[in-house]
Amino acid sequence: MSALIDVIVVGGGPAGLTAASYLRRFHRSCLVLDAGDSRARWIPESNNCPGFPHGVSGAELLRRMREQAFSVDARIEDASVDRIVPCDEGFEVGADARTWRARKVILATGLRDRLPDASWVPEAVACGALRLCAVCDAYEASDQVIGVHGPGDAIGAHAKYLRAYSPAVHALPLDADDGGAAGAEARAAGVEWQSGGGRLEFDGRRCRYVAPDGASVVLDAVYVYLGHDTNAGIAARAGAALTPEGEIIVDGDQKTRLDGLYAIGDVVSGLNQISVAVGHAAIAATHAHNALPFVARKTENPR
Ligand SMILES: Cc1cc2nc3c(=O)[nH]c(=O)nc-3n(C[C@H](O)[C@H](O)[C@H](O)COP(=O)(O)OP(=O)(O)OC[C@H]3O[C@@H](n4cnc5c(N)ncnc54)[C@H](O)[C@@H]3O)c2cc1C
C-alpha cells in the first residue's frame, strides 16, 4: 500500500504547479500527476502575465513554474489519472495499474480547445495568425485586420468585442447564420460580415478567408470560436457537480461538493486566464493546508 500523501494535485499546468509550490511551502507532502498537455504550451508569447513586461512564452512560463515547484521538492510524475475514489482516509487516485492515496485532491486538469481541422493549425497558432483568446492578446492585434471564425450564431458578440481593438474586423461564419441580434449589433458597430461557409487558409504567415463566391480577405489575426471541452470527466465520476458547460462547480474556497476535493484553473473558470488559475491555486492550497491535521514542526537544526 502506498504512503498516504497530504494532497495529490491532478494536472501540472499553471494552476497545478502553483498549488504544488504553495503546499510544499506549507510543509505538506504533495504529488503532482500530470498528463503533460497544458493549454499554456500553445502560448507563443503572453503579454498579460504579471511580472513579464516583455512577454513570456507558455513553454518558458511552465518551465519556470516547474523549477519553482522543484525548488521546494515537489514531486511531479507523468500520469493520466483515470479515477478518483473517495475512501476512509480521503481518496484513492489511479492511473492505469498505479494507485496513490491522499487526504485531499486538487483537480487542475484544464480544458481542450476545439480547433479547425487543418494540419497547419499549430504553426498558425505559434506565429499568432490564429488565436484562441481575445482577452489574452487582442491588445497586440490593435489596428490590425482581425477575423472572427466560428458558427454564425456564436461569433457576433465576439466580433463586436474585437471591434474595440480595430476598425477592420471581419466575421467569418462557418454557415449562413447571420448571427441574429448579436450579428446585427456587430454589423452596426462596423464589423464586416462575410458570406458564410467559406474556407480558411494559411500561407505560413497569415490566414486568408475565401468565401464560397471566391471573394477573399487576408487577415493579420483570426480568433477562433469553436468551443472547448473541459477535462472534468474524472471529477464528475468522483461525484463533483458540473455546470451545463462542463465546468466543475466550486465554492469560494475552490471546494467541490465532495468533501476534500478541490478544483482550480480552466476546468472551473469562465475567465480562462493564467492569473485566475494561479489565484485559484493559492486559495485551494491554503484552504487544504488549514483543513489538514496540524503538525508541529520538528527539526534537528533549530535556529
Ligand atoms: C493560444 C493560447 C494563448 C493563451 N494566451 C494566454 C495569455 O496570454 N494569458 C493568459 O492569462 N492566458 C492565456 N491562455 C490561457 C492559459 O493557457 C490557460 O488559462 C492556462 O493554461 C490554464 O491553466 P490550467 O493549469 O488551469 O490548465 P492547463 O494549463 O491546461 O493544464 C492542465 C494540465 O492538466 C493535465 N491533465 C488533464 N487531464 C489530466 C488527467 N486526467 N490526469 C493528469 N493530468 C491531466 C493536462 O495534460 C495539463 O498538463 C492562452 C491559451 C491559449 C491556448
UniProtKB/TrEMBL annotation:
<dbReference type="InterPro" id="IPR023753">
    <property type="entry name" value="FAD/NAD-binding_dom"/>
</dbReference>
<dbReference type="InterPro" id="IPR050097">
    <property type="entry name" value="Ferredoxin-NADP_redctase_2"/>
</dbReference>
<keyword id="KW-0560">Oxidoreductase</keyword>
<dbReference type="GO" id="GO:0016491">
    <property type="term" value="F:oxidoreductase activity"/>
</dbReference>
<dbReference type="InterPro" id="IPR036188">
    <property type="entry name" value="FAD/NAD-bd_sf"/>
</dbReference>
<feature type="domain" description="FAD/NAD(P)-binding">
    <location>
        <begin position="6"/>
        <end position="281"/>
    </location>
</feature>
<dbReference type="Pfam" id="PF07992">
    <property type="entry name" value="Pyr_redox_2"/>
</dbReference>
<protein>
    <submittedName>
        <fullName>NAD(P)/FAD-dependent oxidoreductase</fullName>
    </submittedName>
</protein>
<keyword id="KW-0285">Flavoprotein</keyword>
